[in-house]
Here is the input.
Amino acid sequence: MISDIFAGLGPRYSEAREIQRSILTDLTSAKLGKLTMLELPTGIGKSAIALALAEMTASPFTVINTATISLQNQYDNDFPRVCKLVGKDNFACTLRPKTTAANAPCIANPQLKCGSDYYKQEEEFRTTSVVATNYALYLSEMLHGRRWHDRRPHLLVCDEGHRLLDFLTSAETVSLSRKLVEKCQFKWPEPTMESMQSWAKLNIDKIRGRAYSLVTTGSTWAKSWLALMWQVQGIADSPAGLIVTRADDVFEATPLWPRKSGRALLSSAENVLVMSATPIPARRSAVSASL
Here is the structure.
C-alpha cells in the first residue's frame, strides 16, 4: 500500500525510504489522535510523509500549513495534487490597474467579478483534496473568516511545528498605527486596551462604510482606509486579557498565552498533525498547553 501511494505522489518521492515506511506504519497502526506531534530530522522527507499519511487515512480534505510562500511553492512543485492557497494581495485585479484583489472593488461588492487569477485559485480550492497554505492565511481565515468553517479539513498538517506558538500568538495580537489613524483624520485615542477597544467599537462602522465607498470609486485613499478598517476591526473583536506591549507610534496588544487561537486551531480540523525538525521541549509543552 505504501509503495503504491509513493508511486503516485510525484517524481521526487516515487519510492518510500525504509524510515518513512516505519514512521507511516507506526502512525497508522496506533491511529491518529486529535493531536499528534512528530519530530523528525531534516532531510527525512516529512512533506512526503504528510501527503502519504493523508492517503493512508483516506482523508477527503487535507490542509498543510507552512511558514512561507516559498515553502508552499515547494509543496506545489513537488506534489502535482497539491493546490497552493495564498492571500488576495498576491493577485492583480483586472478591473483596475495597479490594484490587487485585496483592494479591488469586489471587497465592497462581492457580486463583482473580474478575470483575476484569484478566482481560478478559489475554484481549484473548492475541488482539490490537498491544499498547501501559510499560517498567516490559515489562522486569519480561522479566526475571522468562513473558509475552514465551510470546508473543514479532515487532516491539518502544521509543518515547522516548533514555530507554532509564535504563529498562534501573532494571530491574536492586535495593533493600530497612529500615523494611519491621524492620516484618516481621527483623533488618537488613549493608548490603553479599554480605551482603544471602546474607540474601535464606536468607529468601526463609520470606517468600514468610508473604506468601502472609496474602494468602489477607485480612490487612491482606499488602501489606507482598508488598512485602518482591518486594524480597528481586530481591536474591536479582540478578547479580554490582552497585554499592551507597545503604546507609542503604534499601539500593540498581545495575549500572554494564545488559548483562543490554539483551541480554534484544534477544533478547525478532525485531526491535527504537528511536524518539526527542531525539538524544543519547552516550546512543545507550551504549544500543547495552549491547544
Observations:
- The mean pLDDT is 92.
- Residues 211 and 226 are 5 Å apart (CA to CA).
- Residues 193-217 form the longest helix (25 residues).
